[in-house]
Design goal:
Blueprint (H helix, E strand, L loop, with lengths): L16 H9 L4 E2 L2 H8 L10 E5 L4 H14 L3 E4 L17 E5 L6 E5 L4 E5 L4 H10 L2 E2 L12 H6 L7 H4 L6 E7 L5 E4 L13 H4 L8 E8 L1 E2 L3 E9 L2 H15 L3 E8 H10 L13 E9 L5 H14 L5 E4 L3 H12 L1 H6 L4 E2 L2 E3 L5 H15 L4 E7 L4 E7 L6 H6 L1 H14 L15 H7 L2 H14 L12
Parallel strand pairs: 2-4, 3-4
Antiparallel strand pairs: 1-2, 5-6, 6-10, 7-11, 8-9, 8-10, 12-14, 12-15, 13-14, 13-18, 16-19, 17-19, 18-19
Helix pairs in contact: 1-3, 8-10, 13-15
Bound molecules: flavin-adenine dinucleotide (FAD).
Flavin-adenine dinucleotide (FAD) binds next to strand 3, helix 5 and strand 10.
Length: 480
């Protein structure tokens, strides 16, 4: 992390660059105003801050192509940026002051929506919520859903292969894409905007750019899958003794309620207490406190009948001792209140001190092992550390958050972040897991990626990078 010192440094730009830029995309298409540079050089939610040489704001694919051709010609490195909610430092420049930020925010049109083909063609800068709403207007669901959906953009979602709360049922962002339009590092445009569910004509190139965090090309538009709109939805808040009980409960849900299970979220009890303390208006759904909670959601396209099915499963779970107590939302307001408890642990924890976060995944069946093993080792290494995991149990993805011990100053805890991260990642690796489940690698985990992936995988990644971006101008310093 570095302090913000954003102001345009003309020496960072090649001679004549701004004049050529202005001729290509006009004065609305760029800025070197210090306030704008500062805004786009820092993560709005996260801790990463850098310095930008220039802000590029093209409004069309042709303008993105013109900008990249110019940057490529001058060897000027570019960081693509969507809604800037990424949290791993991938969408902001480093502190060299040499990088341009390429904002996709002005490419924000829904180009086409086809309810008979169940597809929407959206430009990269469309905010996720706008795409969800466009789908609703034609009675369809775009199922990607995450806490930052009012700010993050489709281009950023695809470039980070976002996950969110519906992965259990609908898959990651990757699973929702049929076609892509991409501008390559040298400004050439690949029009792969196919709206096909079957297309076995060679390599599936779009998959290369999804999850590439802006290092292989700039996504300008995508054809996205739409799904049938659920008509009935039931949301339950359940109290449990342990992650093992939650895992058994998940198996019961999957066995009895099948594909209707769309979210299955696990929360450690103390982090829920913090949300109740710090989130204005938050209320405990159950009378008694529990060590762990599950927020489970089931939904289907029929109008009614799911409620009684869920009730039977919950009665069975109670009889078997898998749950201690539970409540089912009786209104949309109650449902939202339950989801607010799930969406705010990180913010609530920050009120109490320094938080070290880890976005990790293991096979679903190993989540209890992860929590037990990592918890044991951390307790010995950092006595008093407050371990508050929560996340998408149904996908094996846990946000493994640690709060500073009450007796340790925040700076001292933060100073041990590398040691703590190494310990957590070692457990993840031993369980066959991943050190980045959904937020990506960015600048945050680059060294760990090369350390932990097989050498042949890293070599293949490097070869792909140099093939698609031989001058290395796309998001240098991120991923690889
Ligand atoms: C409150 C909160 C909750 C979150 N919850 C989740 C969650 O549940 N699941 C999850 O997966 N993530 C979550 N995130 C992380 C973040 O929202 C996602 O990673 C999101 O997909 C990022 O989108 P963005 O538009 O903000 O991308 P940015 O942060 O702007 O960029 C992300 C990466 O994509 C690249 N990029 C952006 N646009 C393009 C483009 N058009 N072409 C090429 N590269 C591009 C950037 O260079 C960067 O590498 C959360 C974040 C917050 C703040």
């Amino acid at each position: 992390m570095t302090a913000v010192r954003a102001a345009s440094d003309p020496a960072a730009l090649p001679a004549g660059f701004l004049e050529q830029l202005d001729r290509r995309i006009g004065p609305r298409g760029w800025s070197v105003e210090s306030g704008q540079l500062a805004l786009h050089a820092a993560e709005q939610w996260g801790a990463w801050r850098g310095r930008a040489a220039v802000l590029l704001r093209p409004a069309t694919t042709a303008e993105v192509a013109a900008v990249l051709e110019l940057c490529h010609g001058h060897g000027l490195p570019v960081v693509p940026q969507g809604g800037n909610t990424g949290l791993v430092g991938a969408g902001v420049p480093d502190d060299s002051g040499r990088l341009a930020v390429l904002s996709l925010a002005r490419l924000n049109r829904i180009r086409e929506i086809d309810p008979l083909n169940d597809t929407v063609t959206a430009e990269a800068g469309c905010v996720l919520e706008a795409v969800q709403n466009a789908a609703l207007e034609v009675d369809r669901l775009f199922p990607l859903s995450l806490g930052a959906q009012g700010s993050c953009q489709i281009g950023g979602n695809l470039s980070s292969n976002a996950g969110g709360v519906n992965v259990l049922r609908y898959g990651m962002a990757r699973a929702l894409v049929l076609g892509l339009e991409v501008v390559l590092a040298d400004g050439r445009v690949w029009d792969g905007l196919r709206a096909l569910r079957k297309d076995n004509t060679g390599y599936d190139l779009k998959q290369l750019f999804i999850g590439a965090e802006g290092t292989l090309g700039v996504i300008t538009a995508a054809v996205l899958r739409l799904l049938p709109l659920p008509r009935e939805r039931q949301t339950a808040w359940l109290a449990l003794a342990s992650p093992r009980a939650a895992l058994e409960l998940l198996a019961l849900f999957r066995g009895r309620l099948g594909e209707t299970v769309s979210s299955f979220e696990l929360l450690e009890g103390e982090c829920v207490e913090l949300v109740l303390r710090y989130l204005p208006g938050a209320r405990a759904p159950l009378a008694r406190r529990a060590p762990w909670y599950v927020l489970a959601e089931v939904a289907w396209s029929l109008a009614e009948g799911l409620g009684p099915q869920l009730e039977q499963v919950l009665e069975d779970a109670l009889r078997r001792g898998l749950i201690q107590d539970g409540a089912v939302a009786a209104s949309e307001a109650q449902r939202k209140a339950l989801w607010a408890l799930r969406e705010n642990p990180t913010e609530a924890m920050a009120h109490e001190g320094v938080v070290l976060r880890h976005d990790i995944a293991v096979p679903v069946s190993r989540v209890p092992d992860l929590i037990e093993r990592a918890g044991g080792e951390l307790g010995r290494a950092v006595p008093g550390v407050r371990i508050m995991p929560f996340g998408h149990l149904g996908d094996g993805n846990i946000h493994y958050n640690l709060l500073q011990p009450a007796a340790m100053p925040g700076e001292a805890f933060y100073a041990r972040r590398d040691e703590v991260q190494r310990l957590v990642f070692d457990v993840v690796e031993a369980l066959g897991g991943s050190i980045s489940a959904e937020h990506g690698i960015g600048r945050l985990k680059r060294a760990e990626l090369t350390r932990r992936k097989p050498a042949i995988e890293v070599a293949l990644m490097r070869r792909l990078k140099t093939t698609l971006d031989p001058k290395g101008i796309l998001n240098p310093g991120a991923v690889i």
